[in-house]
Amino acid sequence: MDNAGLNHQLLNDGTLAVSFSGDWLLESDLPSLKPVLDVLETVPAPTALSIDAAHLGDWDTGLLSTLVRLRRTAGQNAVDIDDSGLPEGARQLLTMAFAVREREGARRHTREKPFLEAVGDWTLGHVADMRDLLAFTGRLVMSLGRVLRGKGTYLRAHLVQYIQEAGAEALPIVSLISFLIGMIFAFVGVMQLQSFGAGIYTANLVGIAMVREMAPIMTAIIIAGRTGAAYAAEIGTMKVNEEIDALTTLGIDPVDFLVSPRVIALVLMMPLLTLYSSLLGIMGGTAVGLAMLDVSMPQYVAQTINAIELNSLLGGLFKSVVYGSLIALAGCQQGMACGNSAMAVGQSTTKAVVMGIVLIVVSASVLTIIYINLGI
Amino acid sequence: MNEASPQIEVRNLTMGYGDFVVQKELEFVIDRGDVFIIMGGSGCGKSTLLKLMIGLKQPMKGDVFYDGVPFWQSGEDEQRAAKRRFGTLFQSGALWSSMTLAENIGLALRQYTDLGESEMRDVVSYKLMLVGLAGFEDYYPNELSGGMKKRAGLARAMALDPEILFFDEPSAGLDPLTAKRLDDLILEIRDSLGTTIIVVTHELASIFAIGNNSVFLDADTKTQLATGNPADLRDNHPNHQVRDFLLRGQAEETVA
Predict the structure, then answer these.
(1) Does B86 touch chain A (CB under 8 A)?
(2) A245 to chain B: nearest residue by CA?
(3) What is the mean pLDDT of residues A134-145?
């Protein structure tokens, strides 16, 4: 393979003669076009540009992209170009490339946004997101009213399926996380409380923490990543496939058919999963307590039972209902708002999880303050 | 039922997204039993017009009249009643992927009828037989080929014996033979059921094989350039662009 060469010479009559030699292939080391372009852009510009390719070997797009650049710059500086020296094929391809004129306004001009503009856009975007979420909440409430009165169209088989997916199928991961969280709490409790001789109060710590706070919030975060994401992805893909349009044309409200059953399924399953999670957490705590403390099983269990009040338990379950509805809301809203591409489905799913977790944490704070004021 | 009377009238219709106008000042009439083609180059708003006619997208101005009743100025109940008379085959079939073919077709029936399970099953298998998919009741859409999905989508669109059937690019992505069979099926439906059929397409073979009326949308002027029988438009229309489209770029410059 001959090395690609590029020579240029400004002739006496003002013509710029450019000669290509060697193999001009994409994978070969192509010489820089800059010196030639510099000559074209000098004032006064050359009167004409002639191209010689007598010593040109093999060529491909490597040559043509160079020629396009050359011709563009020549055109901008009003320099006539004589390309008769080029191989026939290259000339035809070049003509083809310039045959359709660039569409006016088609080229995108990307520009860096100033900082304040970016902040403004970001803020307005979030305000719009919040408004969409509120509007969707309204639609959902209307739809839930219809579905619960038996007026909305949905399939009972789907509801059962959603209940199974959100409930029973989530048990393994909820078991694992809850058990480990219970163990971690018990470790910390034993280490700290034992030095006061109050090791048995580990049972209180684990029991109350699990039932009031940890079980609801850990279950909610697991379900946001698992079921909330699945809701957004399922509904988003249906949107891309025009399946939602197909429902609408049949006169079926997609919120009735797709969203309400999912919300109902999750709101029903969340308290059960939370109850289960509390139980597993306490079991994890018990395992550590029995191993590290000098207490018997009945003692530890009795201590736990005495520690947990009914109000704590009900408070925790109420939280889980709130979290469940927020997760389902975020997941379904993002799915329904999904764009029309594979990338949009991914973005919706991500947004659903992030929004779900933010909503969980915000509502957890609000609920905690309310509970404290109510003395629960 | 087959007498030629205007069934659908599009009057002074302007459509777009946000402030961006896609097509404006559309005016055409579709008679009962027509196979009406909405044609034009890529990106000229054919599918948007279809979405507007089936009630998925609101017009910016103007209205679509079904038997003299304006669709978009009607209340929700009237719109629902009008939609009951439509059947739509979407571009990708748009079958509900989590449901079997029988459930897909069954859902349409369930929405508007009080059929029992076994009668529903009979209707479903009859509809599938019509489109050549007998025995596929319990298949899921992802188990079918592209052509089969289209036909299953057609069976669903026809579930309620619609008076007006809409097709969004029925032959897109199908091999010529399958596309031809779908065209034949469209004509048979029209002939035997008297259904009015509206097809969005830019496949010339299909346009001439099935269409007896059409509208030609242009992306540059953002309005319709012609309406009428596609073969007539090809032979006699004064606008060069229309003839050029229908002759695959072979039209001569002189006006016939």
Answers:
(1) yes
(2) B56
(3) 95
- For residue B83, the distance in angstroms to the closest alpha carbon of chain A comes to 7
Domain A5-97: CATH architecture, name and number where available: 2-Layer Sandwich (3.30)
B84 has a chain A CB within 8 A of its CB: yes
Q: What is the pTM of this model?
A: 0.80
Q: Does B111 contact A155 at a Cβ distance shorter than 8 Å?
A: no
**ipTM of predicted complex:** 0.83
Domain ranges of chain A: 5-97, 141-374
Q: What is the DSSP code string of A21-73?
A: EEEE-TTS-PPPSHHHHHHHHSSSPPSEEEEEEEEEEEE-HHHHHHHHHHHHH
Phi, psi of A360 (to 5 degrees): -60, -50
Average pLDDT of chain A is: 91
Predicted local distance difference test score (pLDDT) of residue A357: 96
Q: Please return the burial class of A38, using the count of CB atoms within 10 Å of its CB with bins 0-12, 13-18 and 19+.
A: exposed
Q: Which residues of A touch B94 (CB under 8 A)?
A: 241-243, 245-246
- The residue that leads in pLDDT, B252 or B2, is B252
Q: What is the pLDDT of residue A237?
A: 93
Phi and psi at A78, nearest 5°, equal 55, 45
Q: Is the pLDDT of residue B1 over 50?
A: no
Whether residue B56 and residue A246 make contact (CB cut-off 8 A), yes or no, is no
Which residues from chain B sit within 8 angstroms of residue A247, using beta carbons? 96
Mean pLDDT of A35-57: 85
**Where is B43: in which H helix or E strand?**
none
Query: Considering CB atoms only, which of A158, A242, A252 is closest to B94?
Result: A242
Q: What is the pLDDT confidence band of residue A251, given thresholds at 50, 70 and 90?
A: confident
As a whole number of angstroms, the distance between CA A179 and CA A173 comes to: 10
- Name the token pair of A187: 């470790």
- What tens digit of pLDDT does each residue of B58-69 get? 899 899 999 888
Distance from CA of B232 to the nearest CA of A (A): 31
